[in-house]
């Protein structure tokens, strides 16, 4: 029986999923291996009747440059009991599987770390290598390297946001854009910077103060009022959905928001429109202070996850896939593949990346970095002490909308 490898995809989709899976398939097929695709993510490993199929060259060649994921994905998270009672070892032994390739974000990587420990403890001769994926760009890769899918999602997000900005300019409106990003603001900041949004709000901005709905609204009004002083009656505000993660439960409840939570304990942000919520809260605040501006909500989320990957990710994902093969042939396991700017692959051991709970912590935006600092210093339009006198014609206490005072910077 041929040596085999098996591939699964966990979490949500990102541009380049098919590129990684199909490039892994092509590379290992050329090396003489049988390649098996496992549907429904990790649930297939803890199921006695998993849905699997062989990936041949023709299938891989037909899907490698397409968006979405040929292998159906899942957010299934195995319990300790699943590991002890339900791990499907026969799937590996019956098919002579030598390598498990997992593709996913921080949750998928954390589960890959648990699987690496489990395989080592049981002395099962199965290697496992993880490929870092997420449009959130929040896996801890060296040298600020992106996760695959991020640049494609940012490209499409910027395309939407610049069209929205033109609508704002043309119609004299303010459009509030909510961008995906569960615990980090990379995507929102990337979109905001690329489209010259006069305000972008990300969780990392609140490094010296707690996130509250009041502060989010006041930051938004800071940009709107500043532009009004400048004689500009339009613009966009980009808000990362991740600001919800750090809001106090009582603040969420007071705003009338009902949240449900997924199996990982994360708020199911996809079930509510953050843009609509922010728009309603902003309109309520403007009515209270007697300030008038036309605002409209726009959501950027599921429309950037399954698009075709741009050239950057097509190349990057192919290099990651070849890197999986190179690491496997060197005997590496329990690691995440990292490819540097020269295309050289090296392992990032999951055990080195884990926190005290054994999870892979997300990489957040470095708010002190040149990218963030320069954007907020030069592109954003915000109230400063120099604007107080001019702002009094719009609001009675301009200091409440001072950008740096709101953030305690």
Q: What are its keywords?
A:
single chain, 409 residues, alpha/beta, Rossmann fold, 2 domains, seven-stranded mixed sheet, 15 helices, 11 strands, elongated
Q: Helical residue percent?
A: 25-40%
CATH C-level of the largest domain: Alpha Beta
Order of helices and strands: EHEEHHHEHEHEHEHEHHEHEEHHHH
Mean of residue pLDDT values? 92
| Total domain modules | 2
Structural class per helix/strand content? alpha/beta
Uncertain segments of ≥5 residues (pLDDT<50)? none
Strand order of the largest sheet: 3-2-1-4-5-10-11
Describe the structure.
- This protein is an alpha/beta fold.
- The chain folds into two domains: 4-148 and 309-353, Rossmann fold, CATH 3.40.50; 154-304 and 373-407, Phosphofructokinase domain (Rossmann fold).
- Helix content is 40%, strand content 14%.
- The chain is built from 15 helices and eleven strands.
- It has helices at 17-30, 57-63, 80-86, 89-94, 106-122, 150-171, 186-194, 213-229, 249-254, 274-289, 311-329, 350-353, 370-379, 388-391, 403-407; strands at 4-9, 34-38, 52-54, 97-104, 127-132, 174-179, 199-201, 235-240, 295-300, 335-339, 345-349.
- A seven-stranded mixed β-sheet has the order 3-2-1-4-5-10-11, with helices on both faces. Strands 7-8-6-9 form a four-stranded parallel β-sheet, with helices on both faces.
- Helix 1 (17-30) runs antiparallel to helix 2, helix 6 (150-171) packs across helix 7 (186-194) and helix 8 (213-229) packs across helix 10 (274-289).
- The chain is elongated.
- The termini are far apart.
- The model has no long low-confidence stretch (mean pLDDT 92).
